[in-house]
């Protein structure tokens, strides 16, 4: 049985109740375009099951973070950024910039993302 939260935006997107631009759909994840992109390619990697943050996934569902990373790479290949490089970021907690409390990875690429920024 899938874990969902009734008031969660990403749970509603996964259920098809809220529209989003789907990039890829996997068995346990979906990839959607970010509505406020921070890079030319900015895709959100969202698990179908609800976990509030990356720490919760790590404690509860061994293998899901691996699957998110694999799916992110597949999206990067299709988007043409796998060779040049991409970033996969998980914000965990409000202090880190998390605004939707359903774990999701931000796949960013298509421009220089050197660290530290300069």
Automatic annotation (TrEMBL):
Cross-referenced CDD domains: PKCI_related (cd01276)
Motif (Histidine triad motif): 102-106
Domain HIT positions: 9-118
Active site: 104 (tele-amp-histidine intermediate)
Species classification: Bacteria, Bacillati, Actinomycetota, Actinomycetes, Streptosporangiales
MF (Gene Ontology): catalytic activity
Protein name: Histidine triad nucleotide-binding protein
InterPro entries found in the cross-reference section: Histidine_triad_HIT, HIT-like, HIT-like_sf
Organism field: Nocardiopsis gilva YIM 90087
